[in-house]
Specification:
The protein has 141 residues and is mostly helical. The chain has three helices and no strands.
Length: 141
């Protein structure tokens, strides 16, 4: 009996208005208190409001899961885009270095070479950091 029922916390006693106003701000990440998941025989079949309540919260949970799956996909793509951006900027500075070299502008060439090296290091650091975090995705699944 004690495994089924837990002590009530103050956070458990917040009223949810998602049925009355499903588009209210701050509702998308809220979760149900533990006592809403207790299996009470026939509560949704005898009470139409409870049936709506369970369906709304099931849909909200599904949408939350879908948002996190999309976020995981986007973060993976953003990692690739970040590395590609740094490589693009490095190549851009290499081209400027070559133009400065052709025009015998030693100062411009040195500055461009330094910028190219900075962006190349940034791409390498980003790639290394992202490689270390790739295992995190597997843990989340």
């Amino acid at each position: 009996l004690l495994a089924k029922f837990r002590p009530l916390e103050k956070a458990d006693l917040k009223a949810t208005t998602v049925v009355a106003d499903p588009n209210a701000r701050g509702q998308r990440n809220s979760t149900l208190a533990w006592f809403w998941s207790i299996d009470v025989q026939g509560d949704s079949s005898s009470n139409d409001w409870m049936n709506v309540f369970y369906r709304v919260h099931w849909l909200r949970t599904l949408a939350l899961r879908d948002r996190w799956a999309e976020e995981l996909l986007l973060v993976g793509q953003e990692m690739i885009w970040t590395v590609d951006f740094f490589l693009y900027k490095s190549q851009q500075w290499v081209r400027r270095m070559q133009m400065a070299d052709a025009n015998s502008q030693v100062g411009h060439r040195c500055y461009a070479a330094r910028q190219a090296r900075i962006y190349l290091r940034l791409s390498q650091q980003a790639q290394d950091s992202f490689e270390r975090t790739k295992g995190v995705e597997r843990v989340a699944e």
